[in-house]
Design a protein that fits this description.
Number of strands: 11
Helix content: 25-40%
Radius of gyration: 18 Å
Largest sheet: 8 strands, mixed
């Protein structure tokens, strides 16, 4: 479906958002740093999140291996959905914990059922909101977002809260389909370029670490919250 990109913009608000009345049918008409925010996949599509072809198309085990998890890590899977990545990571952090965050109560119900059914003890569902993942401050080693960030209605607010929840030196990992490759058969608003991701993460104070393009179709883009040592150096506190 062809859509018209030209529209009158409303004034930018304090968070840097603009709105367009004419926009992509796959988006919500709200733009952040020039990027239109995609519509959220509803809980009605839960079975699609568990489709068998994800094993070959996304190679979740390779993606998790790239994160270099420690057995004691506390991980926030933000936009966890049915826990496709949450349960896989839980097996890699037997002395740690996975906080599976989603804003849809129906997804939390699915997670609760699967935790009981599979008798998993280190996955904890958390019902977040559009602006707050409801994570304790400085409590997590890694925040992971798998094909989810592009749907966040309030990316600046949610990422600010996520940064606050990271321990000093904690990491953020985004898995997003590569916008740079037009041959990847995913809707345009459900892809992100490395350049755009780095720009948006820099806006909340995260430092880029590296981008891994070892997966068939997705970036693995890694960031870090500055440690106390680097913060003190930047602020002139180090002797």
């Amino acid at each position: 479906m062809v859509w018209v990109a030209i529209a009158l913009l409303q004034p930018t608000n304090a968070q840097g958002y603009t709105y367009r009345s004419i926009h992509s049918p796959d988006g919500i008409g709200k733009f952040y740093m020039g990027r239109e925010i995609a519509k959220v996949m509803g809980h009605q599509e839960a079975l699609w999140l568990e489709r068998p072809e994800r094993l070959t198309r996304e190679q979740p085990q390779d993606a998790i291996a790239a994160l270099q998890l420690n057995p004691t890590d506390v991980i926030a899977d933000v936009g966890a959905g049915t826990g496709y990545f949450s349960f896989r990571m839980a097996a890699q952090v037997p002395q740690g914990q996975v906080l599976a965050v989603d804003i849809q109560p129906e997804m939390i119900d699915i997670l609760d059922f699967l935790i009981a059914d599979q008798q998993v003890t280190n996955v904890q569902p958390i019902l977040g909101s559009e602006t707050d993942p409801h994570l304790p401050p400085e409590s997590i080693d890694l925040a992971l977002m798998v094909d989810a960030y592009h749907e966040f209605a309030y990316p600046q607010e949610i990422m600010t809260r996520i940064v606050e929840s990271l321990k000093p030196g904690g990491r953020v990992a985004l898995l997003e389909y590569r916008q740079e490759n037009p041959l990847i058969a995913i809707k345009g608003l459900h892809k992100m370029s490395q350049r755009q991701v780095r720009r948006e993460m820099a806006a909340v104070g995260l430092e880029w670490l590296e981008t891994l393009d070892t997966l068939p179709q997705q970036h693995v883009i890694l960031f870090q919250k500055p440690s106390l040592v680097s913060l003190r150096r930047d602020e002139g506190y180090e002797n």
